[in-house]
Amino acid sequence: MAKGTDLLLRQLAAAAEQLKTRELLEAFDPTRPGSKPTPAQQQIIDAVLYRKARYIVVRAGNQSGKSSTGAKAFATMFREDGITWTRPPEWTEPLQLYVLGRTSKQVEESLHRRIIGQVFEPDAIREVRQGGALQKVINKHNGNTILYFSHHNTNQAQQAVQSFTGHAAWCDELPLSERIIEELSKRVMINGGPTLLTFTPKVPNPGVKHFLDSLPERLAMTVRLNMLENPAIDDEEKQVQLDTAKVMGEAMMNTILHGDWLVGERGVYNYTPGCIRDVPSHYSAAWRHVESSDPAAASEHGLIVAAEDPATGFWYIVRADYIKTKNPMETLQEVLRRTAGLNIVRRIYDSASTWYQQIAAAQGINYMAVYKKSDRKLDMIAATNQALGLNLFVAPWCTDLVDELQAAQWSEVNPTKIAHAHDYHLTDALNYFVDNRPKYEGNQVDHRKTWDQQIREYNQQKYQKQETQSRVKRSAWGRPWTRW
């Protein structure tokens, strides 16, 4: 009797454990047992798992759960537990899945962690890295693999995926070109796999829009996700997001909330995919660099660093950072740390922040003020628009600046004012740079020399100049010492 009771108890415990495991596997959010996707999210997941369309296009608002939905679908395929999903019988080999994000950092910190968070067993996977960047992750139990790529560079992304044949692909965030979407679909074509696209279209992109809108209905499924329908966001936060979106104008509000294509009629900056360009391979810290700062005592400090290609005179934004300390001295030290080792030939600051210039001057750091900033703001924006994509480019990793260039909208109330202008410190710093950048002086760098040689020569010249100035100051007659 006792043995029978023990056996029954063990069976009940095993059944309870299986039920708990199944609940976790079926939960939309693995940290919240019992959580369910919305009907629209479930429609997307089913479309991916059961190949209901070749293209699943998810146009979604911010914080609408689009990335979590994609992660749930791909984690289910990657895990392949036989409980929540069974692979098609014709897929006999280990699965190969592609996941693309805007940058390598975004791929790992957002998409990878969301996917692996659905797996539950940390020791069940093996990560493969190259140069510190995550390349792929392998499921030790079944050999299924996820390959990770960034799509910030269209040509590189297209070439990276060309040598693979997979079973499903997911591209998160709007790519710069429809060529990436087309290439992904080719990689999964042989296996009849789906291509999932999840994005908030916050920048006008006629090429991608035309490609997706022109897909035949038999091949494509379009699903919309509304931020206000996301059950993971409470009502108070939804109201905050709604109030914020209204300030940015109707077009941007509809994009942020509902995933509408941004028509861009009130966009401040002439942002196009052509504004994004990789820094040339011969880039050197010895190039002329300009630091442009928009200090803010009550919020974050906007920092822009631009580098001039001496061969062409083109400028590249190589840093676009927010500094989140409110201690002025700490802010200055952080600016100096982030620009250390670069040939900074000019430092520019917002003339309204005289306190910042005074702190810098006390440390021997000289800044150039922006001339009559308040009276010339529209002219500076016009000059930035004229330069963008022509002789001024933004490195693809400067994502915060890219976001601001896309998001800035003219106010509906006053068309000469930017809605929510106090949030755009990086674009302000960019305007200051364009207004005060040095004139092109021709090719001053010998590309046959290594980076170390260029830096060494630059430091020697700087030291010799300082020594000469020091000798002049120490001379009683204001002249350099001479030997008698």
What does this protein structure show overall?
- This protein has 15 helices and 14 strands.
- The radius of gyration is 27 Å and the shape is elongated.
- The chain has 3 domains: 22-258, Rossmann fold (3-Layer(aba) Sandwich); 273-436, Nucleotidyltransferase, domain 5 (2-Layer Sandwich); 450-484.
- The strands form 2 sheets. The protein has an 8-stranded mixed β-sheet with strand order 3-4-5-2-6-7-1-8, with helices on both faces. It has a 6-stranded mixed β-sheet with strand order 13-12-9-10-11-14.
- Helices cover 39% and strands 17% of the residues.
- The longest helix has 25 residues, at 2-26.
- By secondary structure, it is α/β, with parallel strands linked by helices.
Count of structural domains:
3
CATH homologous superfamily assignment of the largest domain: P-loop containing nucleotide triphosphate hydrolases
Distance between the termini: 116 Å
Radius of gyration: 27 Å
Helix fraction, binned, reads 25-40%
Q: CATH topology of the largest domain, which one?
A: Rossmann fold
Which class do the helix and strand fractions yield? alpha/beta
Could you tell me the strand content as a percent range? 15-25%
Q: Which runs of at least 5 residues are low in confidence (pLDDT < 50)?
A: 480-484
Strand arrangement in the largest pleated sheet: 3-4-5-2-6-7-1-8
SSE ordering: HHEHEHEEEHEHEHEHHEEEHEHEHEHHH
Instruction: Please tally the β strands and state the result.
Output: 14
Mean pLDDT value: 85
How would you sum up the global shape?
A: elongated
CATH architecture designation of the largest domain: 3-Layer(aba) Sandwich
| DSSP summary: helix tally | 15
Q: What summary fits the major beta sheet?
A: 8 strands, mixed
Oligomer kind: single chain
Main CATH class of the largest domain: Alpha Beta
